[in-house]
Design a protein that fits this description.
It comes from Streptomyces fuscichromogenes. Pfam families: Glyoxalase_6. This is Glyoxalase-like domain-containing protein. InterPro entries: Glyas_Bleomycin-R_OHBP_Dase, Glyoxalase_6. The chain is 20% helix and 32% strand. The chain is of the alpha+beta class. The protein has one domain: 2,3-Dihydroxybiphenyl 1,2-Dioxygenase, domain 1 (Roll), CATH 3.10.180. The strands form two sheets. The chain has an eight-stranded mixed β-sheet, with helices on one face. Helix 1 runs antiparallel to helix 2. The radius of gyration is 17 Å and the shape is globular.
């Protein structure tokens, strides 16, 4: 048994506004059947959606998770940056330096993301959302490989990456040390392929931990991965 990654969800103070921003940047359509917050169809071979869930949590540090958007040419990169800025993004400094070939932006609620220069071989063929780049240990990369049934496509010098067998977005972890918990961030929403109780127990055996006795919206079970990042196991869908 494995879990399917059904959504990568943003903590959002204004879910509708943030969904509008990302729909405009990525050219995505809204999912009309979402019963939990606002969701966009990612159009990605990895099969997930983008979710936007109302949260009062304040952002206190740089996100541990951020999207890397790909470009087909310098002009394409410039067009993506201009479109994002027109929709309410701003330039962000995360220590990239003035000579960086990628552009770092933050969305209207401060979530950082990168627009990658053309010719990046690691993200070739991954689609517009080339990667979800995460701050995290090798242990957590191996955990998510087992949890999702996605093979490791990179495992070197504490850095790991997984990708769906169907292709699409890579999920990468840059190795330790971990950045502080930013509070407001992006999270994984999973749906089990079978019995949810059995799947939760499997995830616990792989190194997840229960987040107290809490349950989220729609009866979701809240867990943390080995690095302490919260994720949800939803009812089967």
């Amino acid at each position: 048994m494995t879990s399917r990654l059904v959504a990568i969800s943003f903590d959002a103070h204004q879910p509708e506004r943030l969904a509008h921003f990302w729909a405009g940047v990525l050219g995505l359509e809204r999912a009309d059947d979402s019963s939990d917050g606002v969701a966009l169809m990612s159009g990605n071979d990895a099969g997930y959606r983008l979710g936007f869930r109302s949260s009062p949590v304040r952002k206190t540090a740089q996100n541990r998770l951020h999207f890397d958007l790909t470009s087909s040419s310098p002009e394409d990169q410039q067009e993506t940056v201009a479109r994002a800025l027109d929709l309410g993004a701003r330039h962000a400094d995360v220590g990239q330096g003035p000579d960086a070939s990628h552009v770092v932006l933050a969305d209207p609620e401060g979530n950082e993301f990168c627009v990658i220069e053309p010719g990046n071989g690691f993200l070739a063929g991954c689609g517009f959302i080339g990667a979800l780049a995460c701050d995290g240990s090798r242990t957590v990369g191996c955990f998510w490989s087992e949890a999702l049934g996605w093979p490791l496509v990179w495992d070197q010098d504490e850095e790991t990456a997984v990708q769906s067998p169907n292709g699409g977005t890579k999920i990468t972890w840059g190795g330790p040390p971990l950045m502080p918990d930013p509070g407001k961030d992006l999270h994984f929403d999973l749906a089990p392929d079978g019995d949810r109780h059995a799947e939760v127990e499997r995830l616990l055996s792989l190194g997840a931990k229960r987040l107290g006795d809490a349950h989220g919206e729609q009866g979701a079970v809240l867990l943390t991965d080995p690095d302490g990042n919260t994720f949800r196991v939803l009812t089967r869908r």
